[in-house]
Amino acid sequence: MTARATSARPRRLPAVLLAVLVASCASGKPPTAAWQMDASSALERFRQAYLTGADRWAAAEFRQAREALASTGDATQVARAELTRCALQVAALQFDPCAGFEPLRADAGAPEQAYATYLTGAPLGPQAGLLPPQHRAAASSATPAIQDIQDPLARLVAAGVAVRGGRAGPEVVRAAVDTASERGWRRPLLAWLGLQARQADLAGDEQLAQQVRRRIDLVSGSAKPR
């Protein structure tokens, strides 16, 4: 074969690139916007950082997500990010006002407004139907069955809402402790263990209180190796 014949041969596209092009043409759908990818990945990293107690990392990731969402000029998109942050705080028993959401409330959608009210622990009434499906039953029950919620993070949020609304007995706290422990979520685990210890003290269960405080020392790194 001559050099001229070799140079005339059409070059092949890399297999990965060819697959992407074929899939794109076959679907007929426009590519995902950059802001959606940036916001989604940053919010996911924010969740993980917050739940493990990495505050500086969490703050940086949330700032990136919010900036990406704000680029759309859509208040509902930004409101959802703020509610995500507030929900994580409730899951870790931090009951501060949802300050980032309030300036957006008037322009947010009805489901977002209902969810913001839900996070305060206040009764919702008919608005409960606007909540995400996993929260509707918990919002409508005086004794929420937290353990029936399949998603671990939603379970912790619902448990925090129950505490905030004065509807959380020891079984709710125990379910929250187990959930945070199974996922290795240090921040909420320490918060829920603290509440479990206080409940044990009030019930006069000294053995349980001491056991829980040993777990707190273990999680927080205060336990001394032998």
From TrEMBL:
Q: Which keywords belong to this entry?
A: Signal
May I ask which residue range the UniProt record assigns to the signal sequence?
A: 1-28
Q: What is this protein called?
A: DUF4398 domain-containing protein
Q: What organism is the protein native to?
A: Ramlibacter aurantiacus
